[in-house]
Specification:
InterPro entries: Endonuclease_MobA/VirD2. The protein is about 55% helix and about 10% strand. By secondary structure, it is of the alpha+beta class. The protein has four domains: about 180 residues, BirA Bifunctional Protein, domain 2 (2-Layer Sandwich); about 110 residues, no CATH class; about 100 residues, no CATH class; about 70 residues. The chain is globular, with a radius of gyration of 30 Å.
Length: about 550
């Protein structure tokens, strides 16, 4: 999937952008990486071009243009705009995307959407932190250099004239995202809907905070391990991620808003505030609420209420027809995972009324209409093959698939929680056994104070492990390592089976959702034509 990212800069040093594009940088500190001689190290592979400027004199040409029009002279003005077009890593292996081809697409995209601007177009093939995804950097001077023909996305008359600044509005940004989607669709690259709100909204600021926090946690854990202390926390979690995980876990078992609110407070110490139908959550370590909108669509009222209704209708996995009463839950899940889901090539019908490009291009509109006809034919064939006689039967099958997916998700999370507890017990049991001999020596030593001082780390680990194991024991006896490993093996097999079953059910649910959406669009159009014919008959 290709995503579009936009960054504004008030830095008057345009050369900083050039250096970032051509030389290696430490992404965490945003500082250049230097060699032994203190010189910057060039990037291993990059492709650089300039539009309306020379790429190596971009900084001087931008300053000359700013001086000519007396713009971008104060510190608080936006000097440049930085757009990043990141492609899916799978496009390299599956669709043959190369750095040269991505650079050509970036130049085409820049000429079309930022006409008249001085621009640097640079493609990197290493990805952020060597992730391997190809991405294109587009850096433009905020001041336009040349007059251009007025385009549809330009909202002001001056947006096409030289000497005026780049004006990014919400509609303009939506157009840019739509053009990215159209570009990837044309090239056969992976793409998702960039215009719909994200189910899990992670901003660049949160992403970088998570990276910095994980780095600090790893450094602290290394020091603890060097001192003989086993760290309990190995994964850093931002406050927003903590809220997302807690909300998902609470919603999976709650059947009402009151129950959901109670679980959040009792288990996670999270306060829920509802104002004008909007959910806001207060992290235990914060003084200001975070809205569900900032967390993602899966943490807002509409989605959570739907989850509560599903949980109410389907409170038990065993009560569902897919799980017969004479079989255990694990056996049913084994059967589900054994049935491999074969995905069809059905796709959603495109809504021409809301498709910007179809409204601008008659040829593209005809192409979309033909594609819609093909998808509707496939949808009808799918309905006939699966024996859905009425729209009600189709909706019932979709709701049933939703319920089964929800139930399997809850069962999977329960197994994961049990496996987490078993792993914790194995960890502390091993810690207890490894230091048991030292503790015995401590009991038999004559000078216990001196012995404790000399073996403080081993004794602390032993006593901590013993305390935690006794707290979780049922009859006061410490667990057997053999039994714990057998239980872990069973849970691991069950988790794998449940995960495969959940993925199959989720794919099936998404396929039925596509069929339902296509049928709904088709029926709405049919009703619209029928109403129009009735009105014409009345007028005649």
């Amino acid at each position: 999937m290709a995503i579009l990212k936009h960054i504004t800069s008030k830095n008057a040093d345009y050369g900083e952008a050039q250096r970032y594009l051509m030389f290696q940088y430490d992404e965490a500190a945003m500082k250049p990486v230097l060699d032994e001689s203190g010189r910057m190290i060039p990037r291993e592979e990059f492709y650089l071009d300039g539009i309306n400027c020379d790429p190596f004199t971009f900084d001087m040409e931008c300053k000359e243009l700013n001086a000519q029009y007396r713009k971008n002279q104060t510190f608080d003005e936006i000097k440049s705009h930085h757009y990043i077009l990141s492609f899916d890593p799978k496009d390299v292996t599956e669709n043959g995307l190369t750095g040269e081809r991505a650079q050509q697409l970036g130049i085409e995209y820049t000429r079309k959407n930022f006409p008249g601007h001085q621009a640097l177009v640079c493609t990197h093939t290493d990805g952020n932190n060597e992730s391997g995804n190809i991405h294109v950097h587009i850096v433009i001077n905020s001041l336009r250099k040349y007059d251009v023909e007025r385009r549809d996305f330009m909202e002001r008359s001056c947006d096409s004239r030289a000497g005026y600044k780049h004006h990014l509005t919400n509609n303009y940004l939506a157009y840019l995202k739509q053009d990215v989607m159209d570009l990837c669709h044309r090239e056969g690259l992976h793409q998702v809907d960039l215009l719909s709100p994200a189910e899990k909204k992670i901003t660049d600021r949160e992403y970088r905070a998570q990276r910095r926090g994980q780095k600090k946690l790893d450094e602290r854990n290394q020091k603890m391990l060097a001192d003989g202390v086993a760290p309990r926390k190995t994964k850093f979690e931002t406050q927003k991620e903590f809220l997302r995980n807690a909300i998902s876990e609470a919603a999976a078992s709650a059947c009402s808003l009151d129950e959901f609110q109670k679980i959040l407070m009792e288990r996670f110490d999270i306060s829920l505030k509802i104002s004008r139908g909007r959910f806001s959550y207060l992290h235990p370590e914060r003084g200001k609420y975070i809205t569900g909108r900032n967390l993602g669509t899966h943490f807002e009222e509409s989605y959570l209420q739907a989850i509560f209704e599903e949980n109410t209708r389907h409170s038990s996995i065993l009560s569902d027809p897919i799980f017969p009463a004479d079989k255990s839950a694990s056996e049913n899940q084994q059967e589900l995972s054994a049935s491999v889901f074969i995905k069809s090539d059905l796709r959603l019908v495109v809504d021409l009324q809301n498709c910007y490009k179809a409204q601008q291009s008659a040829a593209y509109a005809r192409k979309v209409k033909l594609s819609n006809l093909q998808q509707m034919a496939k949808t009808v064939a799918y309905i006939q093959e699966n024996g859905y006689d009425t729209e009600k039967d189709l909706l019932h099958a979709y709701h049933e698939a939703q319920a089964q997916t929800s139930d399997m998700r809850k069962a999977l999370r329960s197994t994961e929680q049990s496996l987490k507890q078993i792993n914790e017990q194995i960890h502390y049991t091993g810690q207890y056994l490894a230091n048991k001999s030292v503790y015995r020596q401590f009991l038999s030593s004559k000078n216990k104070g001196k012995f404790r001082e000399a073996h403080k780390a081993e004794l602390t680990l032993y006593e901590t492990a013993r305390k935690i194991l006794k707290e979780h024991s049922v009859d006061g006896k410490l667990p057997s390592m053999k039994l714990l490993k057998e239980e872990k093996e069973k849970l691991t097999v069950l988790k794998s089976s449940q995960k495969e079953a959940y993925q199959n059910l989720r794919k099936f649910e998404k396929e039925l959702n596509t069929v339902c959406s296509n049928v709904e669009i088709f029926l709405e159009k049919s009703r619209f034509r029928q109403n129009g014919q009735e009105k014409d008959m009345v007028r005649s």
